[in-house]
Every structure is written in structure tokens, then in C-alpha cells.
Amino acid sequence: NLSARLTETFKNLRSKGKLSAADVDGTVREIRRALLEADVSLDVVKDFTGRVRERALGDEVNRALNPAQQVVQIVNEELVGILGGEQRRLQFAKNPPTVIMLAGLQGAGKTTLAGKLAKWLKGQGHTPLLVASDLQRPNAVTQLGVVAEQAGVAIFAPEPGNGVGDPVKVARDGVREAEAKHYDFVIVDTAGRLGVDAELMRQAADIRKAVNPDEVLFVIDAMIGQDAVATAKAFQEGVDFTGVVLTKLDGDARGGAALSIRSLTGRPILFASTGEGLDDFEPFHPDRMASRILDLGDVLSLIEQAQQAFDEEEARKVAEKIASDSFTLDDFLKQMQQLRGAGSLKKMMGMLPGMGKMQEQLDNFDEREILHTEAIIQSMTKAERANPKILNGSRRLRIAKGSGMTVTDVNQLIVRFEQAAKMMKTVAKGGVPQIPGMGAM
Ligand code: GDP
Ligand code: MG
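C-alpha cells predicted for Signal recognition particle protein (441 residues):
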């Protein structure tokens, strides 16, 4: 999937100090493939990768301390941009009621959304009225009634047994009812078809004309993939809409549809629906969607914090040493000392994806351990620190005596050092970043 591919791509980048044009091109190619596989439309992909490539080869990356990180940031920024930048709020009518019309294919989640919106608005002190203009399916009105009851809001529906109702008339009467009874929001639920069809479009367009809504929300199932674009375009031509609601984001869909719809229709995504329950609903945040698509946890902010705690040059030197297999006990000690200065270590760990186990180890982390480690390493000769392999039994005994620790302590420290060195190598190869020296505690 999209997220896994991008993560893989960034892992490969992460191990590089400086990026070449070939690196950038390779990465951009991977991003392109990942987006296409996630059903983002070709035009959007081209546009997107073009911008990322241009920026990635530019000065901001050249000057960056960590070029790969900078590329991740660029991709993130461009994703947020493509998703609409800032969050757009619901437009309220100058004179209530604010009329919101829902449109979309059958099964997209319109009726459910009507309930979610109503409940959400009610929670903010509004008085929404649901209007049942889906008279296509026999139980559509009943379904809206159930939803209204769950949300604790009023519903306007045609009298049962009044023959086949006219959805346009119901919509118009519903708005009048709201005006008369001073409801400040009207949510008009409409019929959908399994596929786009002319009659459905005409009916929706007629309802729109009749009630002149402040918002027409196009509701679309995020799982429908490439079809999302064609459907969205058909609705834009047939009814036009002022905003988009993405539903079923609780499924596997990573949001490729979101990327396409926003940029191809120019209409903002206003809400995200994430389940069948009425509370599974939230205003759409482009930045959150971008991190969902990238799936990098809060890696960006983690790196920012880590950069403050570690001396950049030092970190780079260590990385070089690991790469050349010469990570020494001196480096190990230096890192532990820097970590102690980092302070917010635990907070940092919490922000890494999949770090639950490390958290546990941190809870057992003892400040005195660092002092003992310092004592032991400082009792070693220069040669021993640079090349721990020469630490035989008699040397270990001497070190233990010199530092006031036991031989077991010395042995344990060396085991920890070896584990840290191994972990650091994993990091250098692009694995999950781990804090050196924490491994065996
Ligand atoms: P409509 O035909 O557009 O009115 O769609 P409905 O509101 O009747 O929803 C169709 C089905 O999708 C129902 O079973 C809903 O419970 C379900 N549904 C709606 N929104 C979501 C969502 O965000 N996540 C999930 N998992 N199911 C949803
Ligand atoms: Mg419905």
C-alpha cells in the first residue's frame, strides 16, 4: 500500500548523508509508483512528483543538515498542500437556517452522515432538522428516522401513504418548516444510485435549485479507488458541490481518492467519516490526512527534538564510524552523556512508531547506570576503549577494581555496548531509530 511504499522509500533515503540527483530521481520514481498504486490519478501524480523533484534538487535540501529528512518534509508539505492546505469550515447562512444538501452514490454514507452532522451541530448548540428527500428506496425514510432519533434531532418526512412523494417538494417544504419553526440548520438527505445516472443527477440538481443550499456536500466512499475521480467529476458537472466528505476512512483506504478529488475538482474536503457510529466523524484536517498517507508517526517532530539534543557534527561522525565499523566505547560513553542532557528522552520515545517496548525499558532506566558506565569506561585505557575486543579477563578485573565495580558489571557493560553497536548499525542501514545504550536495561 501507499504508506508502506513511502515508508520504504524514506528508509532508503534516511541512510544517506548527501543526496545525489540520482537519489532524488529514484525516490521520486518510488513516490510516483506508490501514489499510482494508491489510485491517485495520473495528472495529480505528475503534478505532485514534479513539484517534489524540483524542490528536492533545490537549495533547501542542499543546505539541510539531514537532506533525507528535508525530502520527507517536502513530501509532507506538498501532500498537505494538495489536500487543501488549511482546513475549511462549514459555511453558515447569513440568515438561518443554513441549508446543507448531501449528494452522492448509494451506499456512500449520506444518510449516516446526516445523523453525524446533526449530532455534531447539536453538540455545538444548534438545532438541526433532517429532511428526508430520498424517496427512492422504500426504507430510506425509516433509516433517516432511526438516525435522527439516535442523534436526538427532528426529522421532516413526507406523510406515509401519501403516494410516491416528490423529493424536490419534500426538500422545499422541509426548508419552509425549518424557517417556520426556527431550526437553524437543515440537512437534506437525497437519493443515490449504484452508478452515476442522468435521472439521479437531474433530481439532485432540481433539489439544489429548489432549496438553494449554503453547502452541497458530495459524499464519497474513500474505498472506491480510481472510480472516485470519475464519480466526483460527474457530480460536479451534474449538480456541482461546495465541499467533499470522505467516508469509510476506517477501512484500508489510505486516502488516494482524497488526493485526487481535492485537486481535480478544486473543492475542499470538509469532513472525514471513520465508522458506522454517529460519533465516528470529524472535521477534515489536511495535515492529519497527510501523515496518515505518509504513516510516519510523529517522526518529523521527533527528529526536530533529537536535533536539539544531539550535536549534529558529533552525530555525523558517529554515523561515519558505524558505517566504517569503528564505533568505540568512547563513542558509546559520549552518546550516553548526550542522552542524559537530552532530558525529554521519554517524550521522544513516545513519538516513535512501535516503541512500546522501548518505553518499558526506559521506565526501568536508571540514572545511576550512566554514572557506573562512565566510571567503568573511564577506567579503561585508550587502546581498550578504541578496541573492546582486547578486553580479556585480567583487563576486565583491573577495570572493575579501578572503577569500584564488579567484573560482572564490566561484562554487562560490554554486552550492552555490543548490542548498542549492533543497533546503531541497523539505524545506519535505515532501521527504526533506537537510542544507543538503552538496549539491555
Ligand atoms: P447512503 O446510501 O449514501 O445514504 O449510505 P448510508 O448512510 O446508508 O451508508 C451505507 C452503509 O455504509 C451503511 O451500512 C453505513 O453504516 C455504512 N457507513 C457509512 N459511513 C461509514 C463509515 O465512515 N465507515 C464505515 N465503516 N461504514 C460506514
Ligand atoms: Mg441514504
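The chain has three domains: 2-82, 98-289, 299-428.
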